[in-house]
Amino acid sequence: MDLRFTPEEVAFRDEMRSFFRNNIPASTRERLGAGRHVGREAWVESQQILNRAGLAVPHWPVQYGGRGWSPIQLFIYNEEMLKENVPAPLPFGTHMVGPVIIAFGTEEQKAHYLPRIANMDDWWCQGFSEPGAGSDLASLKTRAVRDGDHYVINGQKTWTTLAQWANWIFVLARTNPEARKPQEGISFILVDMKTPGVTVRPIQLIDGEAEVNEVWFDDVRVPVANLVGEENRGWDCAKFLLGNERSNIARIGASKSRLKRIRELARQVPAGDGALWDDMGFRRRVNAVEVELKALEMTQLRVVAADRDHSNKPNPASSILKIKGSEIQQATTELALEMAGPFALAYHDAEHDIPEGANDLPDGFGWADTAAPEYFNYRKVSIYGGSNEIQRNIIAKMVLGF
Amino acid sequence: MDFEYSDEQRMLKDSVDRLIGPAYDDLVRRRETQKQPGGFSAELWSKYAELGLLAVNFSEEDGGFGGGPVETMVVMEAIGRGLALEPYLATVVFGGNFLRLGGTAEQRAQTIPAVADGSLKLAFAHVERQARYDLFDVRTHARKSAGGYTIEGDKSVVVHGDSADKLIVSARTSSASQRDRHGITLFLVDADTPGISRRDFPTQDGQRGASVSFGSVVVPDTAILGTLDHGGELIEQVTDIAIAAVCAEAVGAMTALHALTLDYLKTRRQFGVPIGSFQALQHKAVDMFTALEQARSMEYYAAMMATAPSHTARRAAISAAKVQINNSARFVGQTAVQLHGGIGVTMEYRAGHYFKRLTMIESLLGDTDHHMRQIDSIGSLLEAA
Q1: Helix, strand, coil % (nearest 5) of chain B?
Q2: Distance of alpha carbon B337 from alpha carbon B333, whole angstroms
Q3: Helices and strands in chain A, H and E counts
Q4: Among A residues 310-329, those touching chain B with beta carbons less than 8 Å apart
Q5: Which of residues B68, B101, B120 is at a domain's end?
Q6: What DSSP designation does B6 have?
Q7: Interface test with A, best of B263, B297, B330 (most A CBs within 10 A)
Q8: Residue B113 contacts residue B83 (beta carbons within 8 Å)
Q9: A309 touches chain B (CB under 8 A)
Q10: Secondary structure of residue A70 in the 3-state scheme
C-alpha cells in the first residue's frame, strides 16, 4: 500500500496543469470559474485546442485517437481540467455516443463519426428521457418504424441538455412494441437534427437559463445506416453508456475550484469589524465540506487505483461517487449563496448585454449574481444521471444484496 | 498509488483475524474475559506476542519487524472488528511508538524486548481534568531534585493504566505557561514507584482505565524519555499515529456492525417478509455503507499521512481523518441500533457493544469540534494535505 503519486504521475499532473493554463483562453477559464456560462463558440474552440494536442479523447482506444493512459493518468487529467476551469470535452460526444460507436458501431460509422466527435465538428445531445420515462427509462414510448431503407421516428424526448446548440442526437426508440420485456425492442439510432420533423423547444430552468430542451420527432425519416448495434438491442448500448457515465460523476476538481474561490472571496466580504471569513461558523462549514471532499477524493482514488488493469469491473466504492459527489457539489453552491448574502438578490439577465462602461452588475459584488442561479441550477445534480434515490436502489441491490 | 496490501500485510491480516475473531465471537465468554486481571485475556496477549503483533512497529535493529502505520492499521482493524479487549493501543501504539521515537539506545534495549514478548505493558498518563483535548495543557510538573526529578500532579482517563507495568507520564519541566507546547517532558516510570496511586475503573465500552496521582514521585534523570522540555512534539507525533490507529479500529468496528445489520435486515421477518425488503430500511443501509466507505478512505489517508514529514500536512490530514471517522461512527452506530430495533439496545447482542465502542472512540484523542479547530488553524485542508 502506497498512496502517494509516483514522481512520473506528479510530472504528468504538472504537464496537464501547465498545458491547460497556457493553451486554453484565460477568458474562457475565468468565466467558467466565476460560475458564468461559456458560449458554444468558446466551448468548441476549447475542445479543438485539446484535440489538436491529443487531449480531447485520451480515454478512447489508441487506434481512434486515445492515449493508452493508465486510469490514474486519466483521473489526473480530468481533475486538473476541472480545477483549471477548462470546459470539459462535450460528454455527450466523447463519453456517451463515441464509446457506444466504438463498442457497437460499424467500421463505416467509426470512420465517419469518431474524428468529428473528437474535434467537436458536431454537437451531440442525448435523446433518452421522455415525459413518461425518467427513472424508469425502459418504459420509453418514442417509436421507430422501418420503412424501406429508413426508420420513421415519432415521439418526444425531454431534458435534452443543450439541444438548442446540437446538430446530432442519439435516440433510444422502440422498434418492437411486442417484445416480451420493455428493455427488449429498443434501438439506438443517430439522428441528424436538420432532418425535417425535428423540433426543439427550450425549457427555462429555475436559474433563468435554457439549459435543457424538449425535442419532438414528427415523422422523422432516418437512414437505417444510422442504427448503432443490432435492431432491438439498443438497451445494451444504453446500459453500456450509463455505466461509463459514472467515471467522472463525482466532479471533485470542480468542487475544489469552487471551495478555493469561496475561501478567497469570503475574505473580501465585509462583515462586522472584519470579513465574513472571520466568522467561525461560516469557516467551519467550509472546512466541514472540505473534509467530506477529501474523503471522496480518496474514495475516487481507491476506485481508480483498483482499475489499473482497465477491467472496469464494478467496485462497490464507485457506486457512492454519484451520491456523495452530488451532495458535495450542492453544498458548495449553498456556501457560495450564503457568502453572497443579501447581494444574491439581484438578477442578472444574461440575454441583455451589459452596456459598455456600466458596472458589471446592478448591485452588490461583481460575483454575487451567479450565487443564486448556481444554487438553483445545481439541484439538478442529485436528479440527473440516475437520481440519488435510484443510486441507493442500485447499491442496495448490487452491493448490499437486497 | 496503490491501495492493495502487500503479501506480508495480507498474511498479517489473516493471522490476526484468525487469532482475534474466534476469541471474542461469543459475548458471554467476552464478559468472562473482562473479569480477568486487567480486564483482558493474558493468554491471548501472549499469543499476540507469539504472532509478533507486539513487535510489529519496532525497527529490525531493536528486534522488531520494521512495520509502520499500515501494519498498525491491519491489526487495529481486526481489534475493532473483534471487539478485542487487549491493551494494544496503550502498550504497542502509544507505548511502543514513544519508545521507538523517543527512547535512548539503552532505554530501548531495556524495554522493547519485554514489550515484544508481552511481559511489559505500558500506558500513557497524560490527560488532565482541565485539558480536555489540548495536548499541551499540562499542569503536572516535575522539579529537578537530588538525583533526578520529583513529579507532582493528577492524570485522568489513563487507558489501561490499571494493568500497566510502566507509565509514560507528561509533566511540565520549565516555567512556561500551562498550555505551552514547549516545556513539557516525558518520563518513563515504573507504575509501582512510591507516591503513585491508581484508582482503576471499567470503561463504558468494556475496557479498563485509571486515574493516576503522582505525589512527590522521585524518578532518576534516566527516566526522561525524549528530550527535556521538548516532549510536546513527541506527544503530538505519537498521538497522530494513535489517531490513525483508532481510525482503523473504528473502521473495523463499523465494517462488522454494517455486516451485522445487513444480516439482520435480511433475516428478521415482520409483516410476513424480511424487513430488508422495505425501501426505507434499504436506503438507511446504503447511507451506512456510504459513511463506512468514506471513513475507510480516510482511514487509509490517515495511515499514509501519520508519519508525514510536514507538520502542517500531517496535522490537517490526521484531523480531517478523525472528523470523518467521528461523523461516520456516529451515523453508522446510531443507524445500526435503530435498524435492529429493541435487540440493538441490549447488552446481549453485539450491535450495542460496537455502538458503545464507536461512541467512545469519537471522544478519544479529540472530538469533532477539536479537530475542526485544528483544521481551521492550518488554513485550507485541500491545499495543506
Answers
A1: 55, 15, 30
A2: 6
A3: 13, 10
A4: 316-317, 320, 323-324
A5: B120
A6: P
A7: B297
A8: no
A9: no
A10: coil
Which residues have C-beta within 8 Å of that of residue A311, sequence separation ≥ 6?
Answer: none
Together in a domain, B379 and B236? yes
User: What are the Cα distances from residue B221, in Å, to A115, A381, B149, B314?
Assistant: 77, 64, 7, 32
Q: Domain containing B96 — which CATH number?
A: 1.10.540.10
Query: Angle, to 10 degrees, between the axis of helix B311-340 and the axis of helix B368-378?
Result: 150
B80: nearest Cα among B203, B205, B202:
B205
Contact A288 B300 (CB under 8 A): no
In a domain? residue B2: no
Same domain for B144 and B195, yes or no, is yes
Same domain, B149 and B267: no
Residues B361 and B238 in one domain: yes
CB contact under 8 A, A301 and B286: no
Residues B331 and B202 in one domain: no
Q: Is B300 on the interface with A (CB under 8 A)?
A: yes
Q: Is residue A135 within 8 angstroms of chain B, CB to CB?
A: no
Residues B69 and B192 reside in one and the same domain: no
Model-level ipTM above the cut of 0.90: yes
CATH number of the domain at B165, please. Answer: 2.40.110.10
* CA atoms of A305 and A75, how far apart (whole Å): 10
Q: Is the CB of B1 less than 8 angstroms away from the CB of A5?
A: yes
> In this structure, are B127 and B108 located in the same domain?
no
Residue where a domain stops, chosen among B213, B229, B245: B229
Residue A249 near residue A321, CB atoms below 8 Å: yes
Q: Which residue type occupies B146?
A: A
> Nearest C-alpha of chain B: how many angstroms from A302?
6
Within-domain flag for B102: yes
Total number of domains in chain B: 3
3 state SS for A21-66: HHHCCHHHHHHHHCCCCCCHHHHHHHHHHHHHCCCCCCCCCHHHCC
For residue A221, what are the CA distances in angstroms to A147, A155, A178, A234, A370? 9, 13, 22, 18, 42
| C-alpha cell recorded at residue A226 | 444510422
**Tens digits of pLDDT across chain A (402 residues):** 888 889 999 999 999 999 999 999 999 999 999 888 889 999 999 999 999 999 999 999 999 999 999 989 999 999 999 999 999 999 999 999 999 999 999 999 999 999 999 999 999 999 999 999 998 999 999 999 999 999 999 999 999 999 999 999 999 999 999 999 999 999 999 999 999 999 999 999 998 888 999 999 999 999 999 999 999 999 999 999 887 766 678 999 999 999 999 999 999 999 999 999 999 999 999 999 999 999 999 999 998 888 766 665 667 677 799 999 999 999 999 999 999 998 888 777 655 554 444 445 555 677 888 899 999 999 999 998 889 999 999 999 988 999
- Nearest C-alpha of chain A: how many angstroms from B72? 13
Full residue range of the structural domain in which residue B83 is found = 7-120
* Chain A contact for B297 (CB, 8 A cutoff): yes
Q: Is A305 on the interface with B (CB under 8 A)?
A: yes
Is A288's CB within 8 Å of B282's CB?
A: no
Per-residue cell: A85: 476551469
Query: Angle CA(B235)–CA(B236)–CA(B239) in degrees, nearest 5?
Result: 80
What domains are defined for chain A? 7-89 (no CATH), 124-231 (2.40.110.10), 249-399 (1.20.140.10)
In a domain, B1, yes or no: no
Q: How many Å apart are CA A170 and CA A168, to the nearest integer?
A: 7
Find chain A residues with C-beta within 8 A of B284's C-beta: none
